[in-house]
Amino acid sequence: MGRTLLFEGEPDHLVPAASEALIESNLFRVAGRMLGHTFLHDGPHVTGLSPAVIHVLFNGDPEMATVVTEDCPDLHIRSIIELLEHEDLTPEQKDTVSDLSMSWDLPELTQVQCLLKTLTHCAVVDFFFFHLLKSNCSAPSVLTVQHSC
C-alpha cells in the first residue's frame, strides 16, 4: 500500500513536499483544513514541522523565520550550503557554491555568512512559498527574492 507524503525532511524539520502533483490535487488545502480543525478543537498537537514553517503558517513574516540547514530536505543542496560552514574552500567547492547561487540569482561568493543565510533561506522558505502559494490569486510580495546582509 503506497503513501503520499505531504512533508519531507528530517523529524522536527519537516517542510511541505515540493510536488506539482500534490499542489494541483489540493491535498495541501485538505491538510490545512485538518490542521485548522485540530487546532480549533484542541485535538492532537502537530509535531515534526520545521519551526520556520510553523512561524510562516501562523502569519509570521517569512523574512523573520529562523531557518537552519536541517530545514532543507534536499540533501544535495544542503551539502552545498554546508560547504560554506568551512573556512577554506577549494576552487571546485567555490564553483559548486557559485553555481547554486547563480541558479537562484544570488550574488557570488564574497560574504560567506551572508550567502550561507541567504542560500538556506532560499532553499526552505522561498521555495516553500513559491511552490505552495503560486497558485493563489494574489501572489504575495514575498515571492521575490530580496535578501540583504
Automatic annotation (TrEMBL):
Protein's UniProt name: Uncharacterized protein
Protein species of origin: Coregonus suidteri
